[in-house]
Design brief:
The structure is a single chain. The protein is of the alpha/beta class. Among the domains are: 122-287, Rossmann fold (3-Layer(aba) Sandwich), CATH 3.40.50; 370-503. 38% of the residues lie in helices and 23% in strands. The strands form four sheets. A twelve-stranded mixed β-sheet has the order 6-3-7-8-9-10-11-16-15-14-12-13, with helices on both faces. β1 (97-101) and β2 (110-114) form a beta hairpin. α14 (429-443) crosses α15 (445-451).
Length: 507
Amino acid sequence: MPIPIVNSIASWFLKKRFHQIELFVKYPNEVQNELLFSLLKLAKDTEIGKQYDFASIKTYKEFNERIPVVNYETFQPLIERSRNGEQNIFWPKPIRWFAKSSGTTNAKSKFIPVSTESLEDCHYAAGKDLLCMYLNNNEGSQLFTGKSLRLGGSKELYQENGTVFGDLSAILIDNMPFWAEFSSTPSNRVSLMSDWETKMAAVVDETINENVTSLAGVPSWMLVLLNNVLDKTGKDSLFDIWPNLEVYFHGGVSFNPYIDQYRAILPKKDFKYYEIYNASEGFFAIQDQNNSGDLLLMLDYGIFYEFIPMDAYGTPQQKVIPLSDVKLNTNYAVIITTNAGLWRYKIGDTIRFVSLSPHRIKVSGRTKHHINAFGEELIIENAEDALKKVCKLTSAQIVDYTAAPIFMEGKEKGAHEWIIEFKTLPESIDNFSELFDNALKALNSDYEAKRYNNMTLNKPTIHIARPNLFYDWLKENDKLGGQHKIPRLSNSRDYVDELLRLNKIRP
């Protein structure tokens, strides 16, 4: 079948879905409520369903009162039993796949259940919806006339006790229909290579002669790949290699630190960037407008959402609320109940709503990834916005960064200690540091109060990281590629002290 015909048919099918999206946009609370009770009905005869008597739950209030909010550690014993082949524990249908999540807060890997329902009705449905939204907003798109360059995890799949585990991206690639591989590059063989550095070279070799029309992957790792492509070809612009490239679908980490570097190698004003918000636990939100970083919360993927306002998170005053009770510009921890058997599960992310009709969000950080050693409540969103502003003022470019507290000793005040790897250094690091401090004060009143007259906090300490410091740290910890991320902010000094040690060692 000629590719233009494929393009037309695909566009038609994808646009039909748009009407279903309009339904949950118009009736968000009704769709979510119906979803909750369908999940409870499905799972009423599971072990967990009988324990909490799902069959008798008739209202959200009963659900909220009866079923506890859990984290991975609480839920882990049930997951381990499921991994050993036991069935009907938290989901009525057999769970064969487990997404091995790298996690940055904990050295231990998590194994997140992936059911057939979550695979089809959440992860794959989201991939189709992403294309649907993009095509709806860009009618002249020629996306399907070429291939999508996807960059996923670097781990193969492993079998144990009749179940399979590996990176989510590996599970998705392994279960994709044959036509999906036809429209993607590199091949499954290369995508699933376990050694990241070998894989990177193979991806470059396999993709440079393809007609690539879109990119998909985590910004930090995709940038490494694209720079390798430019080095290999001797070109300055990716359009010299892939002239029909029109969009980059990205997620996993904030795009803010990388956007200027992408614009330098993708120098077309009409090139599109589309953000997604997904995790091993599910696919949550998609950018649904051109030139906007706001993400539409997807309400019909088999995920029921609840939220905890962060100002009371982890305290006796903590309160869990449904979607119908959320407010604008409040920082919330996300709780999910899913079609893979996660019940009231804390995913560890924080978001805020920027629109309630429809429900659009921005990811603001991680519940564990903030600095609050002195009551300053510095979140990742603050850090990203401040760095973006100061980089613009100083013409600097950042590769990666992390930060942690310098704890008070004796009469010495506390401070924040930053390690920043620059692609382009600012002219003066002292000026950069001062501008950065001021930008944080402007964005965060708690930080500003603690910095007033150096009352609690001294000005930040910034270390310039040697080239490839963060890459070497990830390599040392066997965390190269795919879903692995640099921990941005931490209340502990574990990462910072390790990186400072490594910064003294020249490769």
